[in-house]
Sequence to fold (704 residues):
Amino acid sequence: MATDSTPHANRKVTLADIAAGCDVSRATVSLVLRGSPLVNKLTRARVEEELRRQGYVYNRAAANLRRRTSSSIALVLNDLANPFFAEFATGVDEALGAAGYVTLLGSTGESAAREQAVLGSLLEHDPAGIILSPAEGSDAGQVLRTIGVRTPMVLFNRELAGKTPPDAPWDLLMLDNQRGARLATEHLIALGQKRIAFFGGHAGSSSCQQRHAGYVEAMKAAGLPIEPHWRIECAPNRVDAAAQCGALFFDAPAPTAAVCYNDAVALGLMLGLYQRGIHPGRDFAVTGFDDIAEAALSAPPLTTLASTPRARGRQAAELLLQRLNEPQAAPRRTVAPVQLVVRASSCPPPAA
Amino acid sequence: MATDSTPHANRKVTLADIAAGCDVSRATVSLVLRGSPLVNKLTRARVEEELRRQGYVYNRAAANLRRRTSSSIALVLNDLANPFFAEFATGVDEALGAAGYVTLLGSTGESAAREQAVLGSLLEHDPAGIILSPAEGSDAGQVLRTIGVRTPMVLFNRELAGKTPPDAPWDLLMLDNQRGARLATEHLIALGQKRIAFFGGHAGSSSCQQRHAGYVEAMKAAGLPIEPHWRIECAPNRVDAAAQCGALFFDAPAPTAAVCYNDAVALGLMLGLYQRGIHPGRDFAVTGFDDIAEAALSAPPLTTLASTPRARGRQAAELLLQRLNEPQAAPRRTVAPVQLVVRASSCPPPAA
DNA sequence: CGCTACATTTTGATCGTTCCAATCGACCAG
DNA sequence: CTGGTCGATTGGAACGATCAAAATGTAGCG
Fold:
């Protein structure tokens, strides 16, 4: 005679198994699981023992189906391999986990097409909401069509192209790009710099536009001129930045400082400067943006703006959780402050 | 009169809504969704139109419940913020997504206790399998107790402490640490180096032991001596490595080359050498391990071993998918090759 | 004893999908 | 006209949980 009380080999243990095992109904077991005060102490103890004995695992999907709830949230990132977003993801997962949610991960590799596909696939798992850091060129209309008007979403870091439907429960969390770049520029000006370039990034990207605007703002406020050849575009990575370095010196007057789009670009630029015999932090001032781990360890250490991506991740999660509690609230735009970190890469201009 | 054909405001659109909308049964709509050849062309067209019109979204959770399948896989990492694991995660997600799975993310922050909690929480979502990069000190018995003997798992990068149950469907994917360190050492020997140190890492860590073993292997094979003071321990980061640099030169004979535990250590060591007026890549040869992004951009560029974490991620996913197809197969231990990347930091010894 | 009050437990329907067996109409052979 | 085959469709029972309402049992009280 098979002892069917032994943990069964093949099928998963369900409520019904436990119920049968200690001679109560499924409903009672369910009440025990959820810690209801309705069940008798003795019954509870018996059921809990049986749960342990059979190695029961709760099936949240079934519960969610019946309750018409969801316990997951989709996190879709344009570039998880980038340490900035990896930190962000860590923060998101941390906060969501604490709130009892599970993170559905999707990475789009900066492709709007893949973003559509990923969103579609994740949606089938019925997330309670979405945290999206859009791929470059991702469009509001497209996104709306795949996720509908009813799924709450927090957009991080970039806005969507095209116009956002005013009734959609979409919140926004951005870095204070403009103020950050302004702070960096003002810092250089305070050091006595007058010929300051804006280096790197794609002029199409909204974060680059905002940072450039902050730079322009500070320059204008100080009454300093802005030469057109002081704005150099390049891909936001070290290699391209190093390659584009020379473009700063094609025409006179050459700049003596550069506000860079981000840290990767700044580190690349410093490399390029070295290769030309220019010593950054002595002959030429450089600032970055993001404060990635390497910024403090480069030679010279990089002056930059700290954006604390992990805290941003937690914040994005909080925003979404709040919206889940308050689905009808008006859309919010949150701008997270950034902090200037002064290190040795920013210096006064060489004596003329 | 309300036109209930309009996309409904409140509830989600289900099979039943579509069925009602075009006057067929739920079963037929389901067949259409899954592309069954059984349905008539005209019916299919009508249904598909209605699906579009109502903005239907497939509920995979319900389907999985009925079919007793799962379409998700749990990815649990000890440190997502580390670029190496972020790349790994990207690779995993890439491969899983292509196979129609969704990634459930969990980050443990190197805490075995949190790892238990995270695993438990993710299990409730009934993943088809787990990819786990264990936290330091994570124990096989503990893990077994929370995930059971029936959930397939791929362990990455570290083994679990304690003994692994022989019947569990657990596979292993490790880097070839020993061979990597051996290759680096042989490379230095081929350049004419004879006094080679092993620098950095904690002797307790299994990856450090393996790399050191590879170094010893190459030295012995070449008949070269190994001085005890040629092994310097330090934390696997730049700062500590730079600080420990001096220890290489306390006793004679001083080494003229060092095989480093990883790139971070190697970069730190190079910094320390510079500070002593020793020019790495000319006066002293250095190799690293990992080939992180900065390795190619340091001065001098670093000779190291490429572990291609993104490819490892894809590989881990493939291993798991294979096991899902073949649940009864014997556990596999896969060792991923690493590739020597020769750059300018490795050089012949200075002429005596 | 009959009635209410209370604590505890159960029954049966339900969530959105899939599966199985049954049905239906059309067509053809005998 | 009957019976069989075939293509297309359908009803209803699952999957594993929850919920609302009903059913127990037990005690108190006039």
Observations:
- The first helix of chain A runs from residue 15 to 22.
